[in-house]
Design brief:
about 500 residues, alpha/beta, TIM Barrel, 3-stranded antiparallel sheet, 17 helices, about 40% helix
Amino acid sequence: MNQIKVVLPVKVNGNTYLYDDASGIIHQWSNIRQEILELYRSAQKEVIVEKLKGKYSINEINDEYDYIDFNIKEYGAFFRECDINNDLETRSNDEILKIARLNNSGLLISLTDACNLRCKYCVYSESYGLTKNKSQKFLSLENAIKGVEKYFEFIEKILETNPRKTFTISFYGGEPLLNYKVMFSVIEYVNNKYPGKFVYNVTTNGILLSPYVCEKLVEYKVNVFVSLDGPQDQHDRLRVDEKGKGSYERIIEKLLYLKEKYPQYYQEFVSVVSVYDLKTDLFKVQRFFDQCYELKLLPPTKIINQVIDTDTTYYEQFTSEDYEHCYEQYSEIKGNYFENISKKETVLPFTRSLIGMNYLSIALRKRYMDVPPERMYTGNSSFPGTKIFLDTNGDFGICERVNGSHPIGNIYEGIDANKIRELIESYSKMVLIYCRKCPVSRLCGNCFRTFEKEGSFEFSQEICQQSKKFIESNLQEFIKLGTINPKFSIMAHTRKEAYFIDEYANV
């Protein structure tokens, strides 16, 4: 059996910890544990004891050997089979669909490709390779219902056998509220057929939050994610309409209407998502969101992302001074985050989202441990069908970020197992050899979208090295936070959504 170690030693405050990618466990490490691990596969326990008894006591060797042995036998720790062996070839189409079906979390629906804004960092702007795929299409109600019906067929057995499981239907665009009539008709249709089984989300720029739209969103308890990039000068620099006019005032007006008219809904179901680039004044944005949150003017900031940096010319506009300035501001905010955690002080939503999100995959790593090795073709890239994306052409894709060149079905034929097989094989042949040997593969955020290129996939060693460096840094910081405060909150700012680190951080 061709096995290799998939572990990463991490130094924190003079101590050594070991992240084990095979099991997801973070171990406090030592020289004796390392020596036993190096000998484990090639020698029996008695031989190892004999080799090490001059350096350590017999009892210590026995105890540490049992520790290593237990983790290997109980959790499959430290080692991974590195042979490239795609077992999909031996699985039937029914089995492939079963894998996808059991892990499915929901359906994403693109209501329209059209948008009433021209945000400068949009992936469909001229700075991105997806521009040529942009259209002004709208999803018809007929095709939306067909898509939903095929989705029902896909998850039907789960709905029958797991009455407690709920699914999510998320509406995207373009700007989805340009097609709000279809959205509400879909919600009504789903609620009539499967009452109480679905939760609804919509991501919007907020401009079309009219009284009628707000009323219906409240009626159906739709989770609303509104794009807002900070105070007016920061927001309007990037989020403009066709005439180049900023959108801040229009969005704030609609949010405050929603707050005044439906205060309880506003508090429980509305969140802000934000984007920044290297010219963003993070200090100013932080002050804005913190003040708005404390005064209860705006809902909590749930997601803060830097402008996507793959397949783009967007970053060509920035100078070295821009990079340095952004880094300095980000580092200071991170330092304050650590100080707050150490003092067990409250961390407000903006900072939790900006900094804490970096540690979320580490905190939740045990959720990835049920992924069999043969499915670990890259990072935490989901098995096609885990999410299903319905585009305006009536095609099903694997997510909202991968363009239509990789469909896995359509509204007429449903989810196609052969297409899933082809997609995984083309992708895994490119990355599997690297992922299987990677000591941080389960923490990796790279996915199909990362390596998608002109209808195929193209591996980038540079991206992988950058990812490894970033993950190692996050592991160091995560462990440090755990030693400072074993129970620190990563994210906790929406109803029922709180990730408290206990067993994960208490290393």
